[in-house]
Amino acid sequence: MRFIELRSDTATQPTQAMREAMYNAEVGDDVYGDDPTMKELEEYAPKLVGKEAALFVPSGTFGNQLSLFTHCKRGTEVILGDDCHIVMHEVGAASVIAGVQLRTLKTSGGEMNPDEVRSTIRAEKDIHYPETGLICMENAYSDGRVLSLKNMSEIYSIARKYNIPVHLDGARVFNAASYLGVDVREITKYCDSVMFCLSKGLCAPVGSMLAGSKSFIEKARKCRKLMGGGLRQAGFLAAAGLVALKKMVGRLGEDHENALLLGEELSKIPGIKVNMKDIQINMVFFDMSETGYDSGKLVKEFYKNRIKINPEENGKMRFVTNYWVKKQDIPYIIETFKKVLNENCN
């Protein structure tokens, strides 16, 4: 029985083309460096984002933490947004793995203020201060908003002035590029390393890429092994990743269009407040508090109607479109919502 999956694009299933590629993949032991399919992926991926080299990692969180671990000395400081994914949803891993201190700044639409970034850098040598070891940005943001190229450029210029590397959490960077209408390299030129997911909207079952300079990736490869990321016949996963990058990137705009349509229709339901200007990629955030309906109960009622959703978080509901949520599914989602609310009123 088919379910409509709105919880997250992390729950996407691999396409038939991916399944076939995985079945037919030629593999070897990647720790020895003899997996031909993984080699192909690690040669293809960095070219897409304008970097010299890339490394396959099991997940986005792994890739971000590997970047911090590789860039930073223990006890140094990382400047980043207070509501970014590394801070909010990566289990405090930076303190455990890289041993760094996170210096968080308030953001506006995911963007840090360049002047605040500049003033936060530990430029003065003082025995009381940790050194600033890294600046992190995220695009697209995990709340669905997209950073402007202007903001990224300003922060990157500041980092260059102080000789501080910049890492980009680009889990959904191809979504950001689609929204901005630019080649993804117009985004990734404002960072020294970038992590991007092969899963999520690109539908691969497992994996992300970490890209940067050859020297950075060489160092990261050893750090990946230390973290338990040395995979063996990983070409099965790389095969799906190649399909994701070659065939799925160009269609992400469809998910964005469906998210806008879903947001427009949700906003017509009494008691539902949708912030339409924040629907920039494939995420729809809305407030349903005025309906008086419990979001936990909504999850159960939607499930009965073959729709998977998450309950509210911090007072907000989130629906996420993806390859497997089609335009023709949206009327059914809206009618189900109306039916559940009406049953509660009667």
Automatic annotation (TrEMBL):
What keywords sit in the KW lines?
Lyase, Pyridoxal phosphate
- A Gene Ontology BP annotation from the UniProt entry: L-threonine catabolic process
Q: Which residues carry this modification: N6-(pyridoxal phosphate)lysine?
A: 200
Q: What is its EC number?
A: 4.1.2.49
Any one GO MF term held by the record is: L-allo-threonine aldolase activity
Residue intervals of the Aromatic amino acid beta-eliminating lyase/threonine aldolase domain: 5-287
Q: Which cofactor does it need?
A: pyridoxal 5'-phosphate
User: Which cellular component terms (GO) are annotated to the entry?
Assistant: cytosol
Q: Which InterPro entries match?
A: ArAA_b-elim_lyase/Thr_aldolase (IPR001597), Low_specificity_L-TA-like (IPR023603), PyrdxlP-dep_Trfase (IPR015424), PyrdxlP-dep_Trfase_major (IPR015421), PyrdxlP-dep_Trfase_small (IPR015422)
Q: Which family does it belong to?
A: Belongs to the threonine aldolase family.
* Name the UniProt record assigns to this protein: L-allo-threonine aldolase
Q: Please report the organism this UniProt entry assigns to the protein.
A: Clostridium luticellarii
Name the gene that codes for it. Answer: ltaA
